[in-house]
Amino acid sequence: MTALRVLFGVGSVTIRREHRIGRSCRRADCTMPRQNACHYRNMAHESRAERAARRRTTTRKRCWWAETADADYVRYHDVEWGRPVHDDRRLFEMLTLEGAQAGLSWSTILHKREGYRRAFANFDVRRVARYDARRRAALQRDSAIVRNRLKIDSTVSNARAFIAVQEEFGSFDHYLWAFVGGRPLVNCPRRGAVPARTALSDALSRDLVRRGFRFVGSTIIYAFLQAVGVVNDHTRDCFLCPRRTPRPSVARRRLRAAPRSRIAVAPAPERLLR
Q: How many folded domains does the chain comprise?
């Protein structure tokens, strides 16, 4: 029997005789879950809404770094990255995770995210600020996080600096968003043209360092700004890139800006009587 190729998710598998007649598949190279009946029947009998949802998941164009089979990566891109954040606990979490990424891949930190939440009291900044030397030493033995002494110590010291910013500005949210006037910067860059740092990240990094924060270099801070939506860098070919309204032409803008002159219209002459 001729083998057929059927797309299923991100990969493809071969339909052999045991698949077509409805038996349980026993192929060693089959990656589909074991079921009592042929698992391709589920594909044939899925509802229209389920089929549409599966197609959207597999055909949507995303930013280049999210084009991966890692489900956590894709969910982070689709649900979190680039969306404005105003909750201080979440801001402290992302600032900590971005600092922990230094020298590592983001996927490593993303897979350790739950471990970080357990280790740092779900990023309760006031509890983390009270971590003593004994607690910090215990975290160096925790394999659920990056066991780097400098990064662990910086999380505690950053929590104390974070509280100082909250006391000065009312919240870290007010302090952070004041750098962009309270509105996110939407860049819509081309693929491959996303910067690693900008003048905004340079200014924020310098101010954070002045306030006692560590692991807040300009590159780390720009990644943080992207993560919490202060900067929206979804590329133009990504389905999450905000639609930009077309700018009017120069002639049209000048026409709108020019003052309208009042033209005096002469009254219509009266009809001549014969």
A: 2
User: Does 106 qualify as catalytic in the annotation?
Assistant: yes
Number of H helices, E strands in the chain: 14, 4
Question: Which of 159, 151, 163 is CA-nearest to residue 220?
Answer: 151
Indicate the pTM of the whole model: 0.69
Q: Report which of 84, 49, 95 is spatially closest to residue 220, judged by C-alpha positions.
A: 95
The pLDDT tens digits of the residues spanning 175-214 come to 999 999 999 999 999 988 899 999 999 999 999 999 999 9
Active site residue 18: no
| Residue 76 among the catalytic residues | yes
Provide the domain limits for residue 22. 4-59
Number of neighbours of residue 126 by Cβ within 10 angstroms: 12
Tell me the one-letter amino acid at 116: Y
On whether residue 271 sits in a domain, the answer given is no
**pLDDT, tens only, 236-247:** 999 999 876 554
| Of 40, 81, 98, 175, catalytic | 98
Q: Are residues 27 and 76 in the same domain?
A: no
